Amino acid sequence: MGPFGSTLRHSEFVKEGIAVLGIDNAVQNRFAWSERRFITPEKYKELQQYTVKPGDVIITIMGTTGRSAVVPQDIPPAITTKHLATITLDRSKALPEYISNAIHRDPSVLNQIALQNRGAIMAGLNLGIIKKLKVRLPPLEQQILYDKIVNQVRQEQEKLEESANTANALFNSLHQRAFRGEL
């Protein structure tokens, strides 16, 4: 988990330096790098224990809990905020993409998370809960195959989204031209 709120304040963010990852970096269970936050190298020295590395799995533990993403290979040096937990895996046993998907797609894991949050005023996770999650772990070869198929499907989804965006833009253009009398 990242540093407590009093250890890292918004006023300490700078335009460049060491990256700070938050819940907005795990969007739709994919890593998103839209809003970028940084701290100075001096502040990083205080917070080094919260370092996140490429291939780590980040999990949202506050707000919309249970979203996860794999930190990409091209990420600069980074730490996490208090709203994320980080899992560093032994990749000879478990692949990050497989574990990330299991956290937000495996009904068994989702049920375990739901049971932990039953009766809570505000849903939340912590490292203790995350460490106790039981994830079915197939042999590494099956995880590799799973990752390959997931990546192929994601590429197709991206193509379809791009086609849908183009169709919507053309449709909107048609309406605008029609209502200006330009058809």
Structural features, described:
- With 183 residues, the chain is α+β, with helices and mostly antiparallel strands.
- It has 2 domains: 10-136, Alpha-Beta Complex (Adenine-n6-DNA-methyltransferase TaqI, Chain A, domain 2), CATH 3.90.220.20; 138-183.
- 40% of the residues lie in helices and 14% in strands.
- It has 5 helices and 9 strands.
- It has a 4-stranded mixed β-sheet with strand order 4-1-8-5. A 3-stranded antiparallel β-sheet has the order 7-6-9, with helices on one face.
- The termini are far apart.
- The model has no long low-confidence stretch (mean pLDDT 90).
Which band does the percent of strand residues land in? 5-15%
Taking Cα atoms only, what radius of gyration do you get, to the nearest Å? Answer: 20 Å
Termini separation comes to 58 Å
**In total, how many domains does the architecture comprise?**
2
CATH superfamily of the largest domain: DNA methylase specificity domains
Oligomerization state of this entry? single chain
How much helical structure, as a percent, in the residues?
40-55%
- Can you tell me the CATH class of the largest domain? Alpha Beta
Beta strand count = 9
Shape: globular
Strand order of the largest sheet: 4-1-8-5
Q: How is the CATH topology of the largest domain named? A: Adenine-n6-DNA-methyltransferase TaqI, Chain A, domain 2
Order of helices and strands: EEEEHEEEEEHHHH
Helix and strand content put the structural class at alpha+beta
User: Tell me about the biggest sheet?
Assistant: 4 strands, mixed
The mean pLDDT is 90
> What is the count of helical runs?
5
| Poorly predicted runs | none
Named at the architecture level, the CATH assignment of the largest domain is: Alpha-Beta Complex
